[in-house]
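Notes on consecutive records. When two proteins share a document, each keeps its own sequence and its own token line. Never mix them. Below: protein one.
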Amino acid sequence: MDDNNVFYIRDLFSRNLKRLRGSANISQLTLANQVELSHNFINDIENGKKWPSARSIGKLAIALRVEPYQFFLSESRWNQREKEILSTYLDDLEDSINKTLTDYRRRYIPNGANGHGGDGKANEENNSDKASDKTTDAEQLS
């Protein structure tokens, strides 16, 4: 393996460690304590100055709740994965909002009110009854 490949892999690892740590909302110090490494060593890994052992990579993966291979994914793979995660999240959010709206409509809006509760026939029947009542009232006055 030539030096360019080594540099690329080290750079890839350090960028992904930063990204994964940031996603987990964990500071370098907290991560260092969890994996029993020094804060300086975590900082040096993220800056591409040092390289972790296989054992340390395993500890980092466990602490960040990721698979070890995720430290070696290219940025284009991350972007694709982030889009998939965002899409799934938005679909779940949309489903949750729709279920909540449906539940609130059932609980708090009487059937037929505002066009959401029922099939609309109740409003049509009430309106036609009111119209016939008005006709009857008008006829009675004449």
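Protein two starts on the next line and is unrelated to protein one.
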Amino acid sequence: MKHFLSLAAALIFHCGLACAQSAPDMPPSLSQVFRYEQMSVVTNPNGTERRTVFNGVMATGETVGGRESTQPVGTPAPPLHSIQHSEIIIVRQGVIEFQHDGKADRLGPGSVIYVAFGTLHAVKNAGDVPAKYDVIQIGGDTKK
């Protein structure tokens, strides 16, 4: 599974990310590094945090975005919502519950979720430690 995660990260980051809004002065053809300690933290009213890594357009034309999310223990699940893009979610820490298609799956570190375009879903912390996961958004209404 760790090899898959490395492959997924390499695929997204090295397949030709043409532009990243977090570094608008960089020429669009350059590879880039996004340091964790330099990412802005947004804290939502329910206590969850997110760090946007990048938003841009790949050389092949797809919009792509990446962020890291943290949900404290006991955070209520957000309302079910649908998305107009595809997502890959990689669980890094804790246990999350992925509600989708009328069912709920519990997943731990190393697990990967694919959320298809238009899926009604929600993700919540279902464990006893903060849940951390990375989200890669592709296509559709992903911000450029």
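For the record: The CA atoms of residues 91 and 133 lie 4 Å apart.
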